[in-house]
Amino acid sequence: MVDDHAVVRQGLKQILTDGFKRATYGEARNAQEALDLVWSQEWDVVVMDITMPGRSGLDVLREIKQSKPRLPVLVLSMHPENQFAVRVLKAGASGYMTKESAPDELMGAVKKVLAGGRYVSNALAENLAASLSVNQRAPQEKLSDREFQVLRLIASGRMATEIARELSLSVKTISTYRSRILEKMGMKNNAELMHYAIQHRLVE
Predict the structure, then answer these.
(1) CA-CA distance, 5 to 2, in Å (whole number)?
(2) What CATH number matches the domain at 6-131, 3.40.50.2300, 3.40.50.720, 3.40.50.1110, 3.40.30.10?
(3) Of 136, 141, 140, 147, whose CA–CA distance to 196 is shortest?
(4) Which of 8, 34, 35, 102 is the most exposed place for a label (fewest CB within 10 A)?
(5) Class of domain 139-199
(6) Is the pLDDT of residue 135 over 70?
(7) Is the pTM of this model over 0.85?
(8) Residue 75, SS3 per DSSP
């Protein structure tokens, strides 16, 4: 279970213990702890948030799938399905749920991905079908994963120097990403990006 909030991890454990009474649980607060656990032990499933301190949850998801492609990862996030789900499913997740989901829905999702299936809610299934139409794609879906990550950092109020340091990139590279993001999304400045991201709940 990967989440930077201890109360969330404890809640997940309580919910899942009802259905998996003999299970062993591992807990991680951030990206590095999650990867250390995945690499050092054998697990049946990873339940993780996509928004954590430091490295992007998308980066963690990709690393997990590269090192252990058969390990199912269920993403549990506060962000709306229509904003993040398609991106994480493409990155290799076995399912996507919001933290507003009912406990029995979480149990069903975990059982489904453990059995080798993929979990999406009925509402998400409809959104995925709609997203097959190019005309209905949300503007942020035009962005690469790295561009999407930079968009979220800009929208969080980070300066280019801070973003560059966090992503281990040059300020010039971040500036290039920003220009591409503005062009792809048809916007003019950071203020418009911030407004869009907040309106569509791409940032906390």
Answers:
(1) 9
(2) 3.40.50.2300
(3) 140
(4) 102
(5) mainly alpha
(6) no
(7) no
(8) strand
